[in-house]
Amino acid sequence: MIFHITHHHDEKTCPAHEPEKVAATFGQVLPSLAEQGVTVHGAWVDPPGHDFFFVVESDSYEAIVEGLFPAVPMGTARIQPVEDFQARMQKVAQG
Q1: What pTM did the predictor assign?
Q2: Residues in CB range of 91: below 8 A, 6 or more apart
Q3: DSSP label at residue 2
Q4: Domain containing 86: what range?
Q5: Helix, strand, or coil here: 3?
Q6: Which CATH number does the domain housing residue 84 bear?
């Protein structure tokens, strides 16, 4: 199943000016997700907005939660299941 994740923190918890903290938190998210067997299809960041975006694939919501654990203290994450738009439109067109 495909999930879109938005992780948001604020300027008070932002580790941008602390390289060691960045390495220990957000720097560990991709390896941590991989360790949990989560496939990351893409990862993006909006630094001034303090937002991270991930598109991942997993059969386990729990694996995603565990994989995000390094960033949990920094803010909040919204994990939303999504489906392929073109595939959905084809199903709709077929009735």
Answers
A1: 0.89
A2: none
A3: E
A4: 2-94
A5: strand
A6: 3.30.70.1060
Domain count, the chain: 1
Residue 50 CA, distance from chain mean position: 13
Q: Contact at 8 Å (CB) between 53 and 4?
A: yes
Give the closest residue to 71 by CA, choosing from 18, 30, 26. 26
For residue 39 the two structure tokens come to 């496939």
- Convert the pLDDT of each residue in 3-61 to its tens digit: 999 999 999 989 999 999 999 999 999 999 999 999 999 999 999 999 999 999 999 99
Three-state SS across 29-63?
A: HHHHHHHCCCEEEEEEEEHHHCEEEEEEECCCHHH
Q: Is 74 exposed, middle or buried (0-12, 13-18, 19+ CB in 10 A)?
A: buried
Q: Do 65 and 95 form a contact (C-beta atoms < 8 A)?
A: no
